[in-house]
Amino acid sequence: MTTQPLARALDGIARELLAPFLDGGGIPAGWKLVSWDCEQAICVTFARGDACVRVECEMRNDRLDCYTRTARFNVCVDRLFEENDLDAEDRRMVESVIDILRERETALPDPARPEAERAAEVREIRVDRVLIPEGKGHYYINPYVGCMIACPFCYVIDRADFSRRLEGLPELPWGRYLDVKINAADVLRKEVQSVAGGIVRMSPILTDPYQGAEQRYRITRQCLEVLVETDIAPVILTRAPRILEDLDLLKRFPRAMVGFSIPTESDEYRQIFEPRADPVDERLRALRALHAAGVKAFAVIQPVLPMDVDRMVEEVAPYVRAVRLDKLYVGERVRPIYEEHGLQKYCTEEWFAETIARLAEGFRSRGVAVESLDNFEPLLSGD
Questions:
Q1: Tens digits of per-residue pLDDT, 302-313?
Q2: How many percent of the chain have pLDDT more than 70?
C-alpha cells in the first residue's frame, strides 16, 4: 500500500481526450454537457431538454456488441432513465461526438504495463471530483474504485481494467486492486454547496460501498455524514450486511433507499459464483432489519444465477419495494464456472428469459415493482 495518497493521472488523460467538450465547444446546438467520468472506461453525458444521452468508450473488443467502433474504442450509447431508442436528433449529436473522439483518440497514451509487484494492490488516492451528475437531479458516487468481493460475472471488469491500462498500471485480476478515495468526504462537502438536491447512487457498478475496506476506511460513512445535511437522497447498492453498522445514520435521512444484490437465494450457488461475498442468509437478515427500521429497500437480482424462483420471491418480496432483474452478460468469462459444476442449463438465453419472466410475475403478484431503469424518484417519494 502507498504511504502517501496519490494524485491520480487518469483524470488528466481523460480531460485531454474530452477537451473540446469540457471547454464548451464540440457540442451540437441545443445540447449541453452534463458530466464526464473515466473510472469505468471513459463516459460523457449530454442533455437536450429532458433527454439525457450517455456515450461510453470502452476498450475495443470486436466480440462485444456496441453502437459503433473506433480504432481504440467500442462506443456504447444509451438514453438514461428511459427505455426509448435514440431519436434522429440524438443520433446527430452522437455521431458528431464520435467524429471528435475518432480525431483525438490517437493522442491517448498506450503505455507498456509494468509487472505487478504484489498479488494485490490498495492505493490511497486523492481526487478532485466525487459527486458525478447524471441528469434530471441524479448523481452517483464511487467511494472506491475496484471491488475486493471479486464477482467473476461483474460487467465492469474489462472497463475498469481499461482505465488502469490508460494510466499505465499493472494488470491485476479483478478483486485484487482497490483505490481508496481518501479525501472523498472533503471534496463532497464542497461540491454539495453548489448543486441542486436530488438522488445519488452509491455505487452503481464499479465498487461495493460496504466491501471489507469500508470497515477500516469508512469512506462511505463519511460521505453519508456529508449528505445527511443536504437535500440529496442516497440510494445505496451493496452485497454486504455491514451496512447495518450505518443504520443509525441511514434513519436520519428523510429519504433513503438501500438495495441488496441477491442473484440467488441458494448459498450453495453463492459459494460457486460469489465465493468472497457474504452468505445469502446474512443479506436476507440485513434486508429484514432495514425493513423493520423503516428504511426503504429494493433488491437487484442481476445476473439471475441458478435458483429456486418461488423461494426467492418468498424470501425477498415482503421486504422490498422494487426489484431489478437481468440476465448474465459477458457470459464467455463465466461459462467455465458453469461447466465445471455441471450447470450449463442455467447459462442459456432461454433459461434467463424464462427465469426473469417467472420472477417478474412472482414479485408483481406480491405488489413489488419490477424496475428496469435506475429512476428511484417514485420509490423514494411513496409511503
A1: 999 999 999 999
A2: 96
Is 234 contained in some domain? yes
Domain count, the chain: 2
**90 and 12 in one domain?**
yes
Within-domain flag for 180: yes
Q: Are residues 169 and 211 in the same domain?
A: yes
Residue 38's SS3 state is coil
Give the domain extent around 82.
6-107
In a domain, 116, yes or no: no
Supply the pLDDT for residue 59: 94
The reply to whether 258 and 360 lie within a common domain is yes
Is the pLDDT assigned to residue 98 strictly greater than 50? yes
Neighbours of 209 (CB within 10 A): 27
What cell does 273 get?
459464483
Q: Which of the 8 DSSP states describes residue 86? A: P
Place of cell 414479485: 363
What number is the average pLDDT over the span 199-215? Answer: 93
Q: Which three cell numbers stand for residue 86?
A: 435514440
Q: Mark whether 98 and 28 lie in a shared domain.
A: yes
Global pTM?
Answer: 0.94
State which of 107, 129, 147 marks the end of a domain: 107
Give phi and psi for 180, each to the nearest 5. Answer: -105, 120
Query: Which residue spans within the chain are E strands per DSSP?
Result: 6-7, 32-37, 42-48, 51-59, 68-69, 73-79, 121-126, 132-135, 138-140, 144-145, 177-181, 198-202, 232-238, 257-261, 296-301, 322-325, 369-370
- pLDDT of res. 183: 97
DSSP 8-state secondary structure symbol assigned to residue 346? G
Task: Tell me, yes or no, whether 88 and 188 share the same domain.
Answer: no
> pLDDT, tens digit, for every residue of 228-238?
999 999 999 99
Average predicted confidence (pLDDT) for the chain: 93
228 close to 220: Cβ distance less than 8 angstroms? no
Q: How many CA atoms lie within 13 A of 109 on its CB side?
A: 18
User: Is 348 part of any domain?
Assistant: yes
Per-residue pLDDT tens digits for 366-379: 999 998 756 667 77
Give one word for 54, left, alpha or beta, with left for phi > 0 and alpha for psi -120 to 50: beta
Residues 184 and 213 in one domain: yes
